[in-house]
Amino acid sequence: ATFTEVPKDVTVREGDDIEMPCAFRASGSTSYSLEIQWWYLKEPARELAHELAISVPGSRSKAAPRLCPLLQTVRVQGNDISHRLRLSGVRRQDEGVYECRVADYSDDETQEHKAQALLRVLSRFAPPDVQAAEAVSHIQ
Questions:
Q1: DSSP 8-class letter at 88
Q2: Contact predicate 93/66, CB 8 Å
Q3: Does residue 54 register a pLDDT over 50?
Q4: DSSP 8-class letter at 110
Q5: 80 contacts 23 by C-beta, under 8 angstroms
Q6: Sorted alphabetically, which SUPFAM superfamilies does this protein's record hold (predicted)?
Q7: Helix or strand holding residue 38 (H, E)
Q8: Does residue 119 have a pLDDT over 50?
Q9: Under CATH, domain 2-45+67-122 is a member of which superfamily?
């Protein structure tokens, strides 16, 4: 079982439309029940894992749902599954890590596979080097 297409890190300008592909093929000839879920992690996984680990044991962390909203779910019967996450008119607050999770429900034990990509969103009007120069002048 393997990903045949994974989302890639991308940098876009505010207002642009993007697509993130995710495709997976299960091994063997058996018919599988496969599910793709797209999650928005906001921060890279290591920071997220740390943040969730420090929440109080036994209580539901209020931060977890906000940090990890489930965006879309697609389920199929068969050996192949693919889905493109489409984001229209991206905004600065859309920046972050998007994760494609594929769950394979065919065995007694569910297998989960993950692929991540980082979306960076630049200001529509200022070129990136001008923003950096402004940041430096504020620091001085």
A1: -
A2: no
A3: no
A4: -
A5: yes
A6: Immunoglobulin (SSF48726)
A7: strand 33-40
A8: yes
A9: Immunoglobulins (2.60.40.10)
